[in-house]
């Protein structure tokens, strides 16, 4: 599959400080990728370079093959961006806002405006003033606005900040629909790991300006097993000696193995005269994983900017 967006050796130096260090990342159609990292890891800087709000020191961003270094406006015209609180004209209706924003792009028809309204489920309220909308509805109107020119790539920075659980769920649902139906590639930064876990197909983790991991969310969730075996101590040593991380619990322990490895490992353990009582997948939360990957790094706080 051809990526929609590619970051190629992307770097940013401010003064003497390397803030983003040789970042390589591909984002694919129909996929929602979460962008995670501790405070100060470089998420905002990366996103600002991707949307042209900050210059690139070296490397490049390709959007549908168009290089931002070679054709800045051509590349940017293919992106839809949603920030935390989209700017809207509060005393105009949702519909008039969309008509206004549609004028900023070439070729956005009335039919397209109606289409995006349907996509975010705003048909019943679109003729009302934005000042009467809940935060969740404003956010969905922001999503509709970002989709007007049919971008194949959407960037969302903390999109659900301030939304209540129902608002978050609705937003997530519409985002999924847009990724599935229009094949849009979505890149979302959020500090809410549980939210990212539900919303995203993949996560990219950045720390100190470097990409430290990129994984499928399903893969993150299925790579741990809880084992109860006797004698417990030698069973734990057996896994440690093979390089697995072993987290001890009262009657058993958790290891970071992949499913195909399990039968062989258990067989070996049995040969070494251990009795096996329980082997079951252990679902680690994304938060556990994140802390493991970043060595206990703090989860980035919500932006207050
Ligand atoms: N204009 C600047 N001059 C100097 N250093 C900067 C500048 N902008 C950002 N930085 C530094 O670059 C690093 C990355 O910042 P960035 O805002 O991209 O991180 P972040 O991952 O978005 O963090 P947060 O989650 O806290 O918003 C930080 O150490 C920050 O202090």
UniProtKB/TrEMBL annotation:
Family annotation (InterPro entries): AAA+_ATPase (IPR003593), ABC_transporter-like_ATP-bd (IPR003439), ABC_transporter-like_CS (IPR017871), P-loop_NTPase (IPR027417)
Origin: domain of life: Bacteria
ABC transporter domain residues: 5-233
Keyword annotations from UniProtKB, A to Z: ATP-binding, Nucleotide-binding, Transport
Any one Gene Ontology molecular-function term assigned to this protein's record: ATP binding
Family (UniProt): Belongs to the ABC transporter superfamily.
Name of the protein this chain belongs to: ABC transporter ATP-binding protein
